[in-house]
Structures are given as structure tokens and as C-alpha cells.
Amino acid sequence: MRQAKTAYSGFLSGGGIPRRHDPHLLPLARIKKIMKKSSVDVKMISREAPLVFSKACELFIEELTKRSWNMTIQGKRRTVHKEDVAHAVATTDVFDFLIDLVHPNTSHHVDLNEDLEKKQ
Amino acid sequence: MDDSTNKITTGDEETANQQEMLLPIANVSRIMKQILPQNAKISKEAKETMQECASEFISFVTGEASEKCKKERRKTVNGDDVCWAMGTLGFDDYAPPLKRYLDRYREVEGDRSATPQRNEEEGRPSSSLAQFDPTLKPF
Q1: pLDDT tens figures, B62-89
Q2: Is the CB of residue B50 less than 8 Å from the CB of residue B28?
Q3: E strand or H helix at B100, and its extent?
Q4: pTM of the complete model
Q5: B6: which DSSP letter?
Q6: Which of A22, B38, B40, B64 qualifies as a FRET site for A37, CA 20 to 30 Å off?
Q7: Cα dihedral A80→A81→A82→A86 (10° resolution)
Q8: How far apart (Å, rounded) are the C-alpha atoms in residues A24 and B11?
Q9: With an 8 Å Cβ cutoff, is B64 touching chain A?
Q10: What ipTM is given for this predicted complex?
């Protein structure tokens, strides 16, 4: 796993850990909004949950970006296009939940089961 | 977007609403650039797609986590629930760095532990993550 090479080393380096949230991380309030919108079942969210997501989203974006880049260089290009992202999604099992999002044949949905049935 | 006469206001409102549900493109871009080689470029569309994917990721995982809370009759989705959901949905690779990250955060917060957390249902510390193993978490 690559070491934190950017300035957001506050939590990971262990030294001089700021009390305030490191500005390089993703905005927690926004994350919380997105979480709340995801389901009517979501009532309360602990302070830690958006924090976990801020790191998880970073890892997610990194992974999807790396895989997209693989598609880009396969096409002998240097610019990552939307199609590269779509291709990366299509070839990675764990990103199945994104298939409709990057290949919009149907409208956006939240119901994964419904989506699986359509694909059968 | 279907009312062309009010296109300016409703279009702006819709855009604003949509933007609220996305992580800022600047942040997303930065993360993408950090992982790519220096000579790589990223189209605007690809960045926007990544924004949407990230939001979908949050929704997807949150949905799973909140379902678990519902089954267990808990009102608050906490960090452990999110980690568990990620493990369940196939993002096990994220677990070690997340755990390190959360441990570090808790170390810091531990110094201020006199302050009760807001939104915590019972005020108990979420120490179960110390034995983090998504596969062992009971449903």
C-alpha cells in the first residue's frame, strides 16, 4: 500500500495530529448528506461513519482510477476518458454496482436486486 | 429540465441539487491525479463520472450498513457498520488501511473522550473495531 505522500499525513504519520480534520480529506458534511440520501432507513449517523467513508472513497477512487488508466494505456492514449472508466467497471466484479451508472441503458436505481434480475 | 420557459431557475436548482449529492470535483480530481503518472491527463467527463461513482459507492455501502442496523434495531450507523458493509460487499482490501486510519483517529479522539459524541445512540465507544474482521461480524 502506498504511503501517504501528500500533505494529508496528519492521521497516518502520528506526529502533530491536528484536532481539526485535515483539509485534504473529502468533506465530511457532504459525505453525510450522501449517506442520508441513500436510504430512508438511515436515521442517525455516528461521527466516525463519514470519516471512514472519507478514507474509503479515497481508496475507491484510487482503485477505479488505476483500473481506468489500464484501459487508457491499452488504447495507447494518455487521457483517461469516461469510456475507460466504464470499461474498468465492466471488467471488475466488485464494481458491478456501478454498471448501470456508467452504461446508462436504464434509469438510475438504488435497488441492486432489481438490477440483477434485469441482467438475467 | 422539462420546462423550457423556466429553464434558467429550475436548471440551476437541479444542478445545485445534483452537486450536493456529489463529492467536490476538485477533491476527486486531486485523488485521481495522485495515483496516476505525471504525464496522464483526465477528461472532464471522466472526473464527473468518478464523482458519480463515488457517490454511488457511498450509497451502496450505506444501504447495506443501515440494513444491518435495522435488523439489529439500532438507530445509528457507526464506523464499524460501514467497515462491515464494505467487507460484505467485496471491498475487503480496504479493511487494513481503514482500520489503521480509524485506530489513529480514535487515538486522537481518546484524549478528548470526556466529550460525549453527538448522534451516538448509547454513548459507548465503538471499540469493536479493534477486533476488526468483517467476516466474523454477526449479522
Answers
A1: 999 999 999 999 999 999 999 999 999 9
A2: yes
A3: helix B95-110
A4: 0.72
A5: G
A6: A22
A7: -60
A8: 31
A9: no
A10: 0.72
